[in-house]
Design a protein that fits this description.
heterodimer; A: alpha+beta; 3-stranded antiparallel sheet; B: mainly alpha; 7 helices; transmembrane (chain B); membrane (chain B); Transporter (chain B)
Chain lengths: ~100, ~220
C-alpha cells in the first residue's frame, strides 16, 4: 500500500484553509483588501490577522500596505508558493479519501 | 495590520477529516465564487424586461401597428426604463471588483468605460445625422436602432473575448443579427425586432446563465 500523504499543517486548520480557499478564488495577479477578505470569510479582524500572519510566515501569502487617496489599505494575495501548496494539499486530501481514511 | 486586542483567536479546532476538509473547500469556494464572479443572469433579465416592455410599447404606439397609446408616452416609458437599466448595469458591473486590486479590476473598469465612451460617440454621430434628416423621417428610428444594436452586440463580443465566455459571445452575435434585421424590416417593424428578438435574446441569455451557471 502506498504511504499516506502528510497534510500541510499550515493549511490544514479550519480557519486558514478557508482563508486559502478564498484567496485561491482570486485570479493569480489580483489582490484583495483586508476588509473585503474579512467580509468573504466572516471572520473578526484579529482572527484573520493572526491566521494571515501564519500564512505569511510560510510565504504562502503576501501582504502589501499601500495608500489610496491618503488612506492606508492592506492588500492580500496568495503567492505562487501558496497556490502550489494549496494544490498539493487538495491532491493529498483526495488520496487520503481514496485510501479510505 | 488590524489586531483587536483581546479578540479571541479561533483555535486550531478539531483536526478535520479529509472529507470534512473537502466539504469546507467546496463551501468556501462556492461563497467566494458567488461574491467575486457575479452572474450576469439578473443583469440580462433587467435588459430583457427593458427591451421587451419598452420597445414593445413603442411598437404598439405606432399608427401603422395598433396605435394603443400616444407615442410620447411610450417614449417616456422607454427613456425611464433605459436610464434605470443603465444605472443598474453600472452598479452590477462594479460589484465583483469591490475590494479587489489588480488586472481583474483594471479589465472590468476598462470594459465599463468602453460602453460609456462608444455610446457617447454614437449619440453624437446619430444626433448630428438626425438633424440632417427631414423631421419625422423613418430613417431616424432605423439609424438609432441599427447603430445602438450594432454597438451593443460588438461590446458583448468583446466581453465574451475578455472573459472567455462563449455565452456572452453568442449573445453579442445575436444582437448584431438583430441590428441588421431591424434596419431591413423598416419602421415600425424595427421596434418589434428590438422588443422580441433583442429583448428575447437577453431573456434567453439570462435563462442560460441560470441553467448553466458555469458555462
Amino acid at each position: 500500500m502506498a504511504e499516506l500523504p502528510e497534510l500541510d499543517p499550515v493549511i490544514h486548520a479550519q480557519a486558514r484553509l478557508r482563508v486559502t480557499v478564498a484567496l485561491a478564488g482570486l485570479r493569480p495577479a489580483d489582490q484583495i483588501t483586508f476588509p473585503r477578505l474579512q467580509q468573504l470569510l466572516e471572520m473578526t479582524a484579529g482572527n484573520l490577522s493572526t491566521h494571515l500572519r501564519k500564512l505569511e510566515d510560510a510565504e504562502y501569502v503576501e501582504i502589501t500596505k499601500a495608500y489610496e487617496h491618503r488612506t492606508p489599505v492592506t492588500l492580500v494575495r496568495l503567492t505562487s508558493k501558496g497556490r502550489a501548496a494549496f494544490e498539493s494539499y487538495t491532491k493529498a486530501l483526495q488520496r487520503l479519501l481514496d485510501a479510505g481514511t | 495590520m488590524n489586531n483587536d486586542a483581546g479578540d479571541p483567536v479561533e483555535d486550531e479546532g478539531e483536526p478535520l477529516s479529509a472529507a470534512e476538509s473537502l466539504e469546507l473547500i467546496a463551501r468556501q469556494n462556492e461563497r467566494t465564487r458567488r461574491e467575486l464572479r457575479v452572474s450576469p443572469a439578473r443583469l440580462f433579465a433587467v435588459w430583457a424586461f427593458t427591451w421587451l416592455v419598452g420597445w414593445g410599447l413603442v411598437y404598439l404606439s405606432d399608427d401603422r401597428s395598433a396605435a394603443l397609446l400616444p407615442g410620447w408616452v411610450a417614449g417616456i416609458v422607454v427613456a425611464v426604463l433605459m436610464v434605470g437599466a443603465i444605472f443598474y448595469s453600472a452598479w452590477h458591473g462594479s460589484k465583483p471588483s469591490r475590494g479587489i486590486r489588480g488586472p481583474s479590476r483594471r479589465i472590468g473598469a476598462m470594459y465599463g468605460w468602453s460602453w460609456g465612451i462608444s455610446f457617447a460617440a454614437m449619440c453624437l454621430i446619430d444626433i448630428r445625422v438626425t438633424k440632417l434628416l427631414p423631421e419625422g423621417s423613418d430613417l431616424v428610428p432605423l439609424l438609432w436602432s441599427g447603430t445602438s444594436l450594432l454597438l451593443t452586440g460588438t461590446l458583448y463580443l468583446a466581453g465574451g473575448m475578455l472573459w472567455q465566455d462563449m455565452r456572452q459571445y453568442f449573445l453579442g452575435g445575436w444582437i448584431i443579427v438583430c441590428s441588421g434585421a431591424s434596419v431591413l424590416v423598416g419602421v415600425p417593424g424595427n421596434f418589434l425586432v428590438l422588443s422580441l428578438a433583442g429583448g428575447g435574446g437577453f431573456a434567453v441569455a439570462a435563462l442560460v446563465y441560470v441553467v448553466r451557471p458555469r458555462g
